[in-house]
């Protein structure tokens, strides 16, 4: 740039004008939390304007799955922008990229899921899913079957409906959420079970019986769908207890309740398998995809629709006219071009395989280094996801007070040492979700920095 802005000038504008999402606005205004202006990135590292480099062990927001600086995707975006930056996809229009990507997604989706509606974010894809569920039940002549069951600690977005589905209080408080059509059931969070005498099988049975009680209370004829992430993400990076998904699906089937698998985090390889649904034997009616679809090189999301639902949607438009649901940017050609290049790269570099093997190495190394630490309650993960839950007292499972900010302090100490991890909201869990191209040496480095940072904060 010929006349570069100074950092001080940008910081002033940042404070004057830029409304940061998910930020403590008062602390930011008082400069109790600083700003960081990211300038560039390569592989698993990001660099800020002051020249500091960090290893990004959270892949942005678990989205830059193929790693930073991939010229194949940048070139595909540039070529698409030159050829056709935009045209809408209403009423039979599309682009080569969006049609090709729909085919590539269907090829990677579970059997019998062959139709893809593209949006821009995970939140809008989940909004689409709920509208499709409601439309479906209206067409089937059961207008009272509309409630959606979500789980406490689930994360499904920040919109009005999706923020309601999200089972984290921060996303409800003072926003008048959740909306009345949403009901929550127990999180499948074994480590935090109320009754510590339960083993995993008993805890799974407890989750199932709580779900059945909820369905009984509300009435199955009022409940349309159940939404869940194959592995709880933002709620703490929590793989389900043994047998959970099989048992839950049996209940849903019995009551004719649709299953929405929110694969915004798990889709396209994060668990070491192409889709989390395959990993856990899920047979969903709808799948939400976003992040890993383009590795965040351009905003793009999608709803994958089962053939069974698709037939009813078609019938609905025959009876009622065109589907009244579309975004200006649905299937944006630039996002679609990024998606095609991204999915090709996943295959050609075997990055899903790498997510499985290096992810297992990361989890094992973390367990070896910290499994016996007095303040580590649990280390858990799956594929290229890992979590370290910090506790005050490991034997009696006493949690730290939220006010101690133990998790955020450890994450800050890690950042000082050049590694980005995430303090997951609600609890003191340190989350890791690195790009799939992470090497074993880099994984070892992340582990040693984590250990060092925990020692510096907790001794
Ligand atoms: N679902 C899940 C499982 C997510 O993790 C997220 C984002 N973290 C969303 C939905 C919402 O996606 P977005 O932020 O793109 O709206």
Automatic annotation (TrEMBL):
> Which cofactors are reported in the record for this sequence?
pyridoxal 5'-phosphate
**EC category:** transferase
Q: Which domain of life, per UniProt?
A: Bacteria
Q: What is its EC number?
A: 2.6.1.-
Asked if the Swiss-Prot or TrEMBL record annotates the protein with the keyword Iron-sulfur, the reply is no
Note the Gene3D superfamilies from the entry. Aspartate Aminotransferase, domain 1, Type I PLP-dependent aspartate aminotransferase-like (Major domain)
The molecular function terms in GO held by this entry are:
pyridoxal phosphate binding; transaminase activity
Give UniProt keywords alphabetically. Aminotransferase, Pyridoxal phosphate, Transferase
Q: Which Pfam families match?
A: Aminotran_3
Its family remark reads: Belongs to the class-III pyridoxal-phosphate-dependent aminotransferase family.
Q: What is this protein called?
A: L-2,4-diaminobutyrate transaminase
The species this protein belongs to is Sulfitobacter noctilucicola
């Amino acid at each position: 740039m010929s006349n570069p802005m100074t950092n001080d000038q940008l910081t002033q504008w940042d404070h004057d004008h830029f409304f940061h999402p998910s930020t403590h606005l008062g602390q930011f205004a008082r400069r109790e939390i600083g700003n960081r202006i990211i300038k560039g990135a390569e592989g698993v590292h990001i660099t800020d304007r002051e020249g500091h480099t960090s290893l990004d062990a959270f892949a942005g927001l678990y989205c830059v799955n193929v790693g930073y600086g991939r010229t194949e995707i940048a070139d595909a975006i540039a070529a698409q922008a030159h050829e056709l930056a935009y045209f809408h996809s209403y009423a039979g229009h599309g682009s080569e990229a969006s049609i090709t990507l729909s085919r590539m997604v269907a090829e990677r989706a579970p059997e019998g899921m062959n139709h893809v509606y593209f949006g821009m974010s995970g939140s809008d894809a989940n909004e689409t899913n709920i509208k499709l569920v409601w439309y479906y039940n209206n067409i089937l002549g059961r207008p009272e079957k509309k409630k959606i069951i979500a789980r406490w600690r689930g994360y499904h977005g920040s919109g009005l409906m999706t923020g309601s589905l999200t089972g984290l209080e921060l996303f409800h408080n003072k926003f008048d959420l959740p909306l009345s059509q949403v009901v929550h059931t127990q999180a499948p969070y074994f480590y935090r079970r109320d009754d510590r005498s339960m083993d995993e099988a008993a805890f799974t049975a407890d989750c199932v019986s709580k779900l059945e009680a909820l369905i009984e209370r509300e009435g199955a004829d009022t409940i349309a769908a159940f939404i869940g992430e194959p592995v709880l993400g933002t709620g703490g990076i929590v793989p389900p207890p043994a047998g959970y998904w099989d048992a839950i699906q049996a209940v849903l089937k019995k009551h004719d309740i649709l299953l929405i698998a929110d694969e915004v985090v798990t889709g396209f390889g994060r668990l070491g398998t192409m889709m989390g649904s395959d990993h856990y034997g899920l047979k969903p009616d709808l799948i939400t995809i976003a992040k890993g679809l383009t590795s965040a090189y351009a905003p793009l999301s999608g709803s994958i629709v089962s053939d069974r639902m698709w037939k009813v949607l078609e019938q609905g438009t025959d009876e009622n006219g065109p589907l009244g649901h579309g975004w200006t940017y649905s299937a944006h050609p630039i996002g679609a071009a990024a998606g095609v290049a991204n999915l090709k790269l996943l295959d050609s570099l075997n990055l899903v395989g790498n997510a499985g093997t290096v992810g297992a190495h990361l989890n094992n190394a973390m367990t070896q280094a910290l499994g016996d630490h007095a303040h580590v309650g649990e280390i858990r993960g799956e594929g290229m996801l890992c979590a370290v839950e910090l506790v005050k007292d490991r034997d009696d499972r006493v949690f730290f007070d939220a006010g101690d900010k133990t998790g955020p302090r450890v994450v800050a100490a890690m950042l000082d040492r050049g590694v980005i991890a995430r303090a997951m909201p609600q609890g003191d869990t340190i989350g890791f979700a690195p790009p799939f191209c992470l090497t074993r040496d880099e994984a070892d480095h992340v582990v040693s920095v984590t250990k060092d940072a925990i020692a510096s904060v907790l001794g």
